[in-house]
Amino acid sequence: MATTYEHIAQNKRRTWLLVLLFPLAFALLCGASFALLFLLIGGGGESCGNINGTTLSCAQMKMAFSLFLVTPIAWLVAIIWMVISFFAGDKWLMSGAGAIAVTRQDQPEIYRLVENLCITRGLPLPRIYIMDDDSLNAFATGRDPQHASVALTKGIVQKLERVELEGVIAHELAHVENRDIRLMLLTIAGISFFTFAGECCLRMALSGGRSRSSKGGNGTLLWLVLGIVCLVYGYLLAPLIRLAVSRQREYQADATAALTTRNPRALASALAKISGDPRVEALDKRESMAAMCIANPLGKMGLFSGLSGLLSTHPPIEKRIQALLDMDREVY
Asked: Does 199 participate in catalysis according to the annotation?
């Protein structure tokens, strides 16, 4: 098991990997789209030029011009999307989860637990949110420990024993300390961009398909192919990028939490209870957020979770419980 400092260093390297991988993946997708469109259009018809000795039809030249025009615009939009998500993504995620910020006066006991654990780990106090859901789940998000947020469901606050809840909060604070939250924020932002862009492209293709003008044919094909490759990336290839975050982050957070509270058995007990009712209804339609939670919050397997289940960043909860119990026997 890597030390906390080693894990932070690894996450910093993975952050840069993600930052480079998303635009690289987009460039490759644009290249694949370019090649596929040229094959679909074919070289028939009036010749309008040639590239490296290859004669191109007017339709192919128009498509090439369209792709070279769309690509830098899409790059710019993607960069703007990622920058905005980096600085405001935590607020968007909390809003999407239906989480409401609480004060010390609202939840004094929760504040005391979080504050004591932050003092133990040398962390600044994060913003605390409560999700109005009777299930048992929690997650943390933010770009760094100074701009972190922790969300707990109403059910987990009410149904867990104090030592169990302390273990859960310590687990989420471990994600904050290890900068896992930054990795997941960037990953979700990247996935959201490609899926949203794919849906927009398909809508453009459908609207273009209703046009009877001959000029609309190739435009429709362009939007259709771009939409398909963006959705394929968002739903099939993005899980491979999520895998760069590594399933070990949950084991690392569990171990850090156990060391912080000196009570691995309490967190193991909390995980056992959470596994019985982890569903958060507000997240049913926000499948990309599932990896942020302490346990899978989806009540049913949706498209994203179904296609990426084999590459889930969460290890089986039974193995996490067993690792904590082994830790309890070996250390305590």
From this structure: no
